[in-house]
Amino acid sequence: MKLGLGLYRHQLDGDHFRFAKQCGCTHLVGHLVDYFRSSRSNRPGDQPVGDDTGWGLAGDPDRLWTYEKLAALRAQINAAGLELEAIENFDPAHWYDVLLDGPRKAQQLENLKTIVRNVGRAGIPVFGYNFSIAGVAGRVKGAFARGGAEAVGTDGPFDTPMPRGMAWNMVYDPHAPPGPEPVATREQLWQRLQDFLDALLPVAEEAGVTLAAHPDDPPMPTVRGQPRLVFQPVLYQKLLDLRPSPRNALEFCVGSLAEMTGGDVYEATDRYSRQGKLAYVHLRNVRGKVPHYRETFIDEGDVDVLRLLRILKRNGFGGVIIPDHAPQMTCAAPWHAGMAYALGYLRAALQSLDAP
Ligand SMILES: [Mn+2]
Q: Which residues pair with 153 in a beta bridge?
């Protein structure tokens, strides 16, 4: 197993690459969506949370991520002695009507194909996505982790209707007419995923890019009144079986799976890693389940992380593990300290698993 770090768009620079290397990482996962653009409430020093207006303004619908930009990013990361394992998340500006089944859907599926082709040509093996109408919404922030470290969680369902002009918890059209976005049915949402996979998988197969699906975060049956796709562990199997392909795989988020009300995180880890379906792993700890859970330090929540890593090793998982989120530690560099703590813990755990 390989240790990696996920970096937000504004962190894709030499200092953060060196920080990852210093923490023992060999791989990076990069975000190109700017989750903090024109945001009313998000601070770029931590994972995005936002308020009922979402994280902020989505990107430029007409500017797709080019081969040149992706290749330059990979080269810069390689020069720092690291590999770029994945790009994580599409910009809502590039696929809102794929999620909402709107009038620009056909054009936006072409957008996504272009991006996946560019990612493959740049030699980046994985694209992580989260097929979600409301996105990562409804979380709160507080002194939830050990010693009062700031972390996120949920305080109940969040079903305030999603306004028009929003998708995936970002604003793609600030001038949209007022009123709520019509609510989709669960069947419609699965049909939209199927349309996405039918369009993208042949391109991914040709481009050598694995499409890796993140489960719902938070994994509630609805958020903003809109249905969710993978909010129970068993629904990951439905996603895989919908369109079987070596390029249809999982961005396996242990924290989100542990927050789910059904199933069991160890059983789910065994089941999906045995199938060889984990493209890469988000590994964080959590206390409680939806609709009331808290993110914690990696060594203090409900998940026995060492047991989980033993399951991955037993099933031959050789991919990248990143800490996903970490609580903010009280010091001059809260994000760095939180990540360094999680990475140090994971590095020790992986070394001890590999010891004779
Ligand atoms: Mn995750």
A: 140, 294
